[in-house]
Amino acid sequence: MAERIRTTVEGAIATITVARPEKLNAFDIDMLKELSAACDEIEANAAVRAAILTGEGKAFSAGGDIRAWAGMEANEFGHAWVRFGHRVFERLATLRMPLIAAVNGHALGGGLELAAAADIRIAEEQVKIGLPEAGLGMVPGWSGTQRLVKRFGAQAVRRMLLGGEVLTAAEAETLGIIDKVVEAGTAVTAAKAYAARIAARGPAATEVSKLMIAVANGEDNGAAVEALGSILVAKTGDLREGVSAFTQKRPAEFKGEW
């Protein structure tokens, strides 16, 4: 089987490409697993300071492949498809480095949820976005009513999900869903330029700032707070003393050194 989630690294910038153009980059279970593995791969690379997410061909992503889940029983659909996909997209959204979505084509349903997992969205002028799920008798399952509302506001989501509105890139920009609109065929180039700006900034400050923004926006509060606290404590003399005392089987002598 051809690799359908490709990962490349150029210097401090990693690029994740959804590569199933014959299906408009629609996801199945195996692709979700590949995306999760790609997140692990780039996060483990200490040299990577910014990441780009894009699609191959004329679409960014059409979301979930209907044929991948249409035959599932309700319980399997809810757990193996919806909950698993939700976890993978959450993994993407909580990468330690900023993520830029280079939206090179239409982003509908799960495709929009995919783009929403990024910190910055750069879309080409011909792009259209929407949440068509209710027209299929279903609801968004990969954080379309959660992350999208927190990041873009409830009214924009109501218009797309309840009203079935499909927005142009320009309309989405006015609503804050898209951060920048560029000419057709230039989204990846623009994303690389923006990623280079991010990579030139302090990596520790950038990572911590991303966590702090997530806390302020009500996203992933518990994990973000614990990550910040753990990073801080890991830098202290108390931790070094505690570990040393444990390995030497002696009482620790904490000094409160920061």
Automatic annotation (TrEMBL):
InterPro entries found in the cross-reference section: ClpP/crotonase-like_dom_sf, Enoyl-CoA_hydra/iso, Enoyl-CoA_hydra_C
Instruction: Report whether Lyase shows up as a keyword of the record.
Output: yes
Q: Which UniProt keywords apply?
A: Lyase
Q: Give yes or no: UniProt keyword Lyase.
A: yes
Per its UniProt record, what Gene3D superfamilies does this chain match?
2-enoyl-CoA Hydratase, Chain A, domain 1 (3.90.226.10), Lyase 2-enoyl-coa Hydratase, Chain A, domain 2 (1.10.12.10)
Biological process annotations from GO: fatty acid beta-oxidation
Give the source's domain of life in one word. Bacteria
What GO MF annotations does this protein's record show?
lyase activity
Annotated family: Belongs to the enoyl-CoA hydratase/isomerase family.
- Indicate what this protein is called per its UniProt record: Enoyl-CoA hydratase/carnithine racemase
